[in-house]
């Protein structure tokens, strides 16, 4: 819709992962290097984790787009599959018929398929996306599939991609055998401010945007900045450097510019778009929005009083909890206080502003901010929630371990019976 307005030949910020638009940040390059290393080893598991929207699937698609001809790849996105179901899904993805077949028959057919690939000097690669949804026993089943070998070489290699929840699953005591087969792992974090700017520029150029453009009033070719530095900072603060959020938001920004016939964006323009999308897209929680407003006031206040010895810069800190990002604003509360002891490199302020004065000066709704910041009771509730969450996870791990021990005990008892029968048979034969 807006492509022609900016001189583009494609949408630069579509949500569907596209290898053509893959931006390699420092961590993404590392993750891709691990995947390529794993391919070169032709064995073991590679594990890539990261938050929602950090680019795990994009990395997987980029890898698949550049595979050599001797690798046959299949990709599955996993709901909570049982071990039997995951075996059938893997076989189906590789084109193996599973109709009316038992698990044993499916495994047999899959093994024959893998042997046939090996005879053609090919090997199989399985990419498991959203792996955090898999139960422990299903991940163990994937490990068992890696036991298919020929002449000491594995016939199937697997890469696991999942959210942060995958990490504690793999740390479980009864996952030791699986951990020993992990040859490399990497965790993807959001982009920093500089990488966010480069990400936006890269995707715009990949979609056909010309950074060097002709001036309207002359034949001179000059650099054209679509976004001001302040605008890019606003984009980073709002999206927190998460690629999927950047894509969603930037698509809306470009649409806004098209409708308003704009060819450059300032911080004020970005704030207008933020105001529009906050109620309909990835809206921050009320306390996050309050902090965002406070950040703007803090930045303005520090800029205005940067050279004033009568005040101390205000700081805003982020506190991350299991429930999400809980924002905590730290501002100085003392009014008309003369400090007698300070850091040796600090200047002695003659006065500090109260919180209410600072917020009022920046037109921030004090009552809404107070309501949105977490109370001690709420923080305690969140802490109790965290405790219950990890207790539940621990209970599940204990249950799985108990089940494994029980199965091992049954197997030991069965072997004991066999040995006793064999001994009894041996004694009878000797006596006769």
TrEMBL record:
Top-level taxon of the source organism: Bacteria
InterPro entries: AAA+_ATPase, AAA_22, ExeA_AAA_ATPase_DNA-bind, P-loop_NTPase, XrtA-assoc_ATPase-like
Taxonomic source organism: Opacimonas viscosa
Ranges for domain AAA+ ATPase: 42-194
Gene Ontology MF terms in the entry: ATP hydrolysis activity
Protein name (record): XrtA-associated ATPase
């Amino acid at each position: 819709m807006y492509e022609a307005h900016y001189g583009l030949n494609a949408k630069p910020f579509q949500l569907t992962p596209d290898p053509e638009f893959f931006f390699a940040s420092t961590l993404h390059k590392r993750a891709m290097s691990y995947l390529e290393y794993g391919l070169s080893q032709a064995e073991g598991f590679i594990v890539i984790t990261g938050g929602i929207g950090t680019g795990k699937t994009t990395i997987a698609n980029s890898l698949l787009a550049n595979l050599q001809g001797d690798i046959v790849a299949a990709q599955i996105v996993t709901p909570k599959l049982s071990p039997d179901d995951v075996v059938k899904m893997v076989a189906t993805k590789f084109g193996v018929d599973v109709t009316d077949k038992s698990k044993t028959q499916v495994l047999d057919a899959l093994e024959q398929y893998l042997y046939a690939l090996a005879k053609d000097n090919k090997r199989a690669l399985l990419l498991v996306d959203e792996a955090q949804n898999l139960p422990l026993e299903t991940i163990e089943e994937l490990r068992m599939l890696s036991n298919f070998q020929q002449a000491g070489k594995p016939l199937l290699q697997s890469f696991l991609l999942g959210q942060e929840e995958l990490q504690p699953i793999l740390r479980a005591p009864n996952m030791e055998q699986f951990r020993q087969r992990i040859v490399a792992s990497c965790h993807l974090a959001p982009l920093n401010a500089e990488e966010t700017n480069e990400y936006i520029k890269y995707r715009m150029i990949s979609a056909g945007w010309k950074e060097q453009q002709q001036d309207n009033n002359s034949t001179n070719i000059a650099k054209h900045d679509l976004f001001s530095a302040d605008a890019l900072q606003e984009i980073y603060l709002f999206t927190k450097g998460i690629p999927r959020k950047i894509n969603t938001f930037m698509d809306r920004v470009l649409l806004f510019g098209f409708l308003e016939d704009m060819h450059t964006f300032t911080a004020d323009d970005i704030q207008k778009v933020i105001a529009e999308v906050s109620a309909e897209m990835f809206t921050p929680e009320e306390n996050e929005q309050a902090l965002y407003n406070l950040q703007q006031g803090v930045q303005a206040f520090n800029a205005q009083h940067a050279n004033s010895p009568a005040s101390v810069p205000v700081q805003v800190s982020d506190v991350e909890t299991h429930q999400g990002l809980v924002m905590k604003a730290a501002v100085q509360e003392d009014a008309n206080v003369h400090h007698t002891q300070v850091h040796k490199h600090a200047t002695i302020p003659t006065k500090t502003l109260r919180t209410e004065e600072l917020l009022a000066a920046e037109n921030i709704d004090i009552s809404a901010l107070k309501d949105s910041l977490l109370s001690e009771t709420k923080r305690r509730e969140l802490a109790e929630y965290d405790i219950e969450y990890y207790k539940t996870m621990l209970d599940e791990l204990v249950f799985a371990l108990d089940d494994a021990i029980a199965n091992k005990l049954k197997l030991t008892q069965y072997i004991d019976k066999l040995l006793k029968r064999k001994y009894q048979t041996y004694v009878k034969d000797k006596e006769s």
